[in-house]
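User: Good morning. I'm curious how BES would be positioned relative to this chain. Could you predict the structure with it bound?
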Amino acid sequence: MISKASGILPLALVGLTLAVACAAPDSTTENTTPADEAESATAQMDRPDKHSFARPDVSVKHLDLDLKVDFDNKTLTGRASLHLDRHADAEALYLDTRDLTIHSVTWTSEANSQPQDTPFVLGEPVDSLGRELKIDLPADASVVHVDYVTSPEAAAVQWLDPAQTAGGEQPFLFTQSQAILARTWVPIQDTPAVRFTYNATVQVPHQLMAVMSAENPQERTDDGIYTFKMPQAIPSYLLALGVGDLAFRPMGERTGVYAEPSVVEAAAWEFAETEDMMHAVEELYGPYRWGRFDVLVLPPSFPFGGMENPRLTFATPTILAGDRSLVALIAHELAHSWSGNLVTNATWNDFWLNEGFTVYLERRIMEAVYNPSYAAMLARLGRQDLDQTLADFGPGHADGHLFLNLDGRDPDEGMTDVAYEKGYFFLRTLEETVGREKFDPFLKAWFDANAFESKTTDDFLAYLDKELIAGDEKLAESLQVQAWVHGPGVPGNAPNLESDAFEKVDAARAEWMAGKDPAGLPTSEWTTHEWLHFLRGVPYDVGPEKMAQLDQAFGFTKTGNSEILSEWLLHVIDSRYEPGYGALEDFLTRQGRRKFLQPLYAAMAKHDDLKPMAMEIYTKARPGYHSVSSGTIDGILGWQS
Ligand code: BES
Ligand code: ZN
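Assistant: Good morning! Here's the predicted structure, ligand included:
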């Protein structure tokens, strides 16, 4: 299964649509001249990031955001003031927007703070890229102010009814900007190549609290007005906002958790090791540079496991297993504070620089805080995911490369296990070939040398060549860097993984398959990961009798562990284990994490007899999903809205 991939069906060729868009500017907006159109057409060629309309001659260095949150109309209304760094004689600023209504654009300068109007043009929509906003830039303009309102359908934003929250009394809102959804709630240069600091003022209903990827309040204000400061420069995909009935609990000196009041205690218990994780990673890669590391636990429709919004990781409540067994996800999002947030992929083709590095750091953290055999189990499960993804792609598929070519596609399509797990195994191969004594300082120096910058795959390869390979031809040959980065599949020098724990699980499973009573298997010490390995090795179509036997012995249908349940439910589907159907429907309607939804809907869609059940469940569940998840499932089920 391609568990991290969106499954979104390939879009129309963006490049082709662009040409049409440029030739047919939107008649409802300002006038466009043929010269504008020609200029716009050439610009498509030299945009360094093909997923953004931004051009490198002028960049946003600071954002002042002033927003009012309107739950009745499901809109964010306000102003984005963009402070510019003008590198060349640019006559226009190009921003990304999608589904935004632009009311007016004004500019100010160092010398004159009186806002003055300037012409702007909104281009035609281009698939997932949205619409280019071209703003004329007078010679001395240093700040551009865009007054706008978002659409209730803004893809980044999910507006939750009280019934979709734990408390059931208050509405909730959260954003998910990665990869290119920031433009649906802020007009911005929505490319990871541009970084800016920001300040924000957000007005919310007075009984709610607002938090952002910034310095955050720990208490509610009386008037519902919250001000935020983000002094470290971030790329747009790390802009984030959450609004709801939130409480805060400190966990350690620099760590705490935000969640709805009925969830916050359990979350603080579950994530209590976060401070230890911070120490472990700082030991390896240097100081944490973002001040605090807090976690916001969202309502269950959050479409990801976690999102590394700086200072405030967003997390799904489905990792609250009650036994701390799913906290590798916290290690993962924390690790992004070095790999991704500090040193950022310059384009989405370089996504493995974010995720592959982060999975590597995550497992180093888990090894340090727990033990090597724990990290080894995670690596083995990761390798299984990777092999499955590559098998689904088929041999020689270009999406099996670390360096991707996503031009003309939704970048979501490149967000697969390849970036995560092949990326991990590449770094692990480097580590094992040169040894940790060399590799650890090398990686630390990569983060230090490139802190708060955006880097390409070529930048990393040049650094690797200079600092680690350093002219050693034999070493260069043994690493097979080209095959890893620009080839499909997993090169032959990937490490062999051993896990004693999993060998024992394999043996137990084999005994059961051969007829032994499952109640007699030596499972009493098994952790979540052993159970996952056990289930993954059970044939999916093992059949209802064997399934009933397992269920009776281990109670899988009733498990509160979301990872184990999702694995079990795949078997429920393929084995037509009907006593599990209720739990399947319940799981699909009470949470919206795409990683869980996608394989389950895909498994049902594969079987003609189960497709009606899939459609029935989806009809009920779809209104509760975030657009990231519903977009993917729409594609799987051929849903027409
Ligand atoms: N940054 C990602 C989530 C993401 C990726 C959002 C691409 C949008 C586009 C986050 O760090 C992540 O990888 N989350 C994983 C966690 C896991 C690998 C521990 C998830 O949500 O499953
Ligand atoms: Zn990640």
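Residues 372-393 form the longest helix (22 residues). Residues 178-179, 304-308, 329, 332-333, 336, 355, 415, 420, 595 surround BES (ligand 1) (CB under 6 Å).
Let me know if you'd like a different ligand tried.
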